[in-house]
């Protein structure tokens, strides 16, 4: 993946249960889109039901939660990674299968499923005091060696433009001041929200919709799925996009094309 003048295509998708998504659009979408790197969140698998299918990828890695049918992440790659890491190096935030890091020659790819703060915000202190700062520190540590690409369901709509109804959701999980601050703190350390970098004022661009009240058909959604990169990769961003037409989950896939100069 370090060939000069090559373009790397990456897709991130919270599939909200891989087995359920495969009964809908997953296999067809992956075969048609055929990205170089495919990152999944909320696969909701246990070790007994990991698919035998490789979906056309030479390398794959599932990181599953200890609780069956909960959380879980996966990365599929056409190129063999130099190394694979699970979770954070200090042993924090283990047991829920939320983070996988693939190291390649030119960059680290970090696939993450950030904890939801829950409807009653009972997990917001965990997010604000622990998870978000620890993720930021981990990315900064990785960046000391080479550029970082972070992707996944970050469970936060950063700005008012990133959700359909900001005024009525100011105290809702995913749009609290604390969660938004955590994302701002990450960007302030020299990371770029690739979609907003290319589409700074694009409205109606969402990646998640509630199953209730026909929200998706009305496009009453949230943009909570991201590709975030080290700012040194800014000139390499060829495209950052959202694929709302792809169904199969309450989230849709998001993508990033990076060009090596």
Note down, in words, how this protein is organized.
The protein is of the alpha+beta class and 261 residues long. The protein has one domain (7-259): Endonuclease/exonuclease/phosphatase (Deoxyribonuclease I, Chain A, 4-Layer Sandwich). 19% of the residues lie in helices and 26% in strands. The chain contains 5 helices and 14 strands. The chain has helices at residues 18-22, 26-33, 124-143, 177-188, 194-198, and strands spanning 7-14, 37-41, 59-63, 73-77, 83-86, 99-103, 108-113, 148-153, 191-193, 208-209, 221-222, 225-230, 237-242, 254-259. The strands form 3 sheets. It has a 6-stranded mixed β-sheet with strand order 3-4-2-1-14-13. Strands 5-6-7-8-12-9 form a 6-stranded mixed β-sheet. Strands 10-11 form a two-stranded antiparallel ribbon. Strand 7, helix 3 (124-143) and strand 8 form a beta-alpha-beta unit. Helix 3 packs parallel to helix 4. The longest helix is centred in the middle third of the chain and has 20 residues, at 124-143. The radius of gyration is 17 Å and the shape is globular. The model has no long low-confidence stretch (mean pLDDT 96).
Summarize the structure.
With 261 residues, the chain is of the alpha+beta class. Helices cover 19% and strands 26% of the residues.
């Amino acid at each position: 993946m370090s060939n000069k003048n090559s373009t790397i295509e990456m897709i991130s998708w919270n599939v909200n249960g891989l087995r359920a998504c495969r009964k809908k659009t997953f296999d067809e979408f992956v075969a048609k889109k055929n990205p170089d790197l495919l990152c999944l969140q909320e696969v909701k698998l246990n070790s007994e039901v990991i698919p035998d299918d490789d979906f056309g990828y030479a390398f794959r890695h599932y990181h599953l939660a200890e609780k069956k049918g909960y959380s879980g992440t996966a990365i599929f790659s056409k190129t063999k990674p130099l190394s694979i890491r699970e979770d954070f190096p200090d042993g924090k935030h283990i047991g829920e299968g939320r983070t996988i890091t693939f190291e390649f020659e030119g960059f680290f790819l970090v696939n993450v499923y950030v904890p939801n703060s829950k409807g009653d915000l009972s997990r917001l202190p965990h997010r604000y005091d622990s998870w978000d700062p620890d993720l930021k520190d981990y990315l900064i540590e990785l960046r000391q060696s080479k550029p970082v690409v972070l992707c996944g369901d970050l469970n936060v709509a950063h700005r008012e433009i990133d959700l359909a109804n900001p005024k009525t959701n100011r105290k809702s999980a995913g749009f609290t001041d604390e969660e938004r601050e955590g994302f701002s703190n990450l960007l302030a350390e020299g990371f770029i929200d690739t979609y907003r970098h290319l589409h700074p004022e694009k409205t109606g661009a969402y990646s998640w919709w509630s199953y209730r009240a026909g929200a998706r058909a009305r496009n009453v959604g949230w943009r909570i799925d991201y590709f975030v990169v080290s700012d040194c990769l800014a000139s390499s961003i060829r495209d950052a996009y959202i694929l709302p037409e792809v169904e199969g989950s309450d989230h849709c896939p998001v993508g990033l094309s990076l060009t090596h100069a």
